[in-house]
């Protein structure tokens, strides 16, 4: 299990290939990458993500450990960036490896739902007109109820 919180961009292809390499005992590898999405009609200049380093790392390690305990997983990778990112840049990556696809998909969805709604990150959208903190969305919170 690897959890990385970093400012620098990451190479999704290299991370995915490295994660999947040599997985002869795993029947499924699931990957997901979150990307900074422009606002409807454009206008997003950047997304700024802030966090408390020690707290964030521990929280992400805890949820990754819970996924390993809950599903039959061979491995988990979580990468989450902080700092300033422009539309089209990668924010985060989740990868899960499991003997069977159901566990790999469910664990990846669980991790993504957690990262979207409960991970200790604070996001600020900088538009052409202003900057504003992003509020939690009801649908993101609702997604957690299935777990």
UniProtKB/TrEMBL annotation:
Give yes or no: UniProt keyword Oxidoreductase. no
Q: Do you know which Gene3D superfamilies this protein is assigned to? A: Molybdopterin biosynthesis MoaE subunit
Q: What is the uppermost EC class here?
A: transferase
Catalyzed reactions? 2 [molybdopterin-synthase sulfur-carrier protein]-C-terminal-Gly-aminoethanethioate + cyclic pyranopterin phosphate + H2O = molybdopterin + 2 [molybdopterin-synthase sulfur-carrier protein]-C-terminal Gly-Gly + 2 H(+)
Q: Which UniProt keywords apply?
A: Molybdenum cofactor biosynthesis, Transferase
What processes does the entry annotate via GO biological process terms? Mo-molybdopterin cofactor biosynthetic process
Pathway the protein takes part in: Cofactor biosynthesis; molybdopterin biosynthesis
Query: Which Pfam families does the annotation name?
Result: MoaE
Sequence intervals crossing the membrane: none
Keyword Glycoprotein set for record: no
Please list the GO terms describing molecular function.
molybdopterin synthase activity
Q: What is its EC number?
A: 2.8.1.12
Name the InterPro entries for this protein.
MoaE_sf, Mopterin_biosynth_MoaE
Q: Where along the sequence do coiled-coil regions lie?
A: none
The subunit field of the Swiss-Prot or TrEMBL record says: Heterotetramer of 2 MoaD subunits and 2 MoaE subunits. Also stable as homodimer. The enzyme changes between these two forms during catalysis.
Q: What does this protein do?
A: Converts molybdopterin precursor Z into molybdopterin. This requires the incorporation of two sulfur atoms into precursor Z to generate a dithiolene group. The sulfur is provided by MoaD.
Which family is it part of? Belongs to the MoaE family.
Report what the protein is called.
Molybdopterin synthase catalytic subunit
Q: What is the lineage of its organism?
A: Bacteria, Pseudomonadati, Pseudomonadota, Alphaproteobacteria, Rhodobacterales
